[in-house]
């Protein structure tokens, strides 16, 4: 039986970018694991560096996230939890999540 792993990308990334960046890691497990990549539901505002990415929630009112700041502002968190729940419901049996940075709290 193949182990299915839900892959949750980092801030300013997408599922496709995470898939590309994890190629060497996935190759190690190619015969025993299936990696399923999902996209965060929130679009990060363009900050002028031509990188349009996605985020799981924002910690600031300008729809950005700053890991170094303490805040009670959580815009989009519930939507992200719903996105992960839907991925878990719609796919057949996951054995493990593969998380990057702050996504572990989603």
TrEMBL record:
GO annotation terms (biological process): response to retinoic acid
GO MF annotation: an example: hydrolase activity
Keyword Acyltransferase: no
Keyword Hydrolase attached: yes
Gene Ontology CC terms, in alphabetical order: cytoplasm; nucleus
InterPro entries: AB_hydrolase_fold (IPR029058), FSH-like_dom (IPR005645), LovG (IPR050593)
Domain Serine hydrolase: 2-93
Keywords tagged on the record: Hydrolase
Annotated family: Belongs to the LovG family.
UniProt name for this protein: Ovarian cancer-associated gene 2 protein homolog
């Amino acid at each position: 039986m193949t182990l299915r792993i839900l892959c949750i990308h980092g801030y300013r990334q997408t599922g496709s970018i995470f898939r590309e960046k994890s190629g060497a890691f996935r190759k190690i497990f190619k015969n025993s694991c299936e990696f399923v990549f999902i996209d965060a539901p929130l679009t990060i505002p363009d900050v002028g560096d031509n990188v349009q990415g996605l985020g799981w929630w924002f910690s600031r009112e300008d729809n950005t996230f700053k890991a170094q700041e303490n805040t009670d502002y959580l815009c989009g968190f519930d939507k992200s939890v719903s996105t992960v729940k839907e991925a878990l419901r719609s796919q057949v049996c996951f054995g493990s999540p593969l998380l990057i940075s702050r996504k572990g709290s989603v």
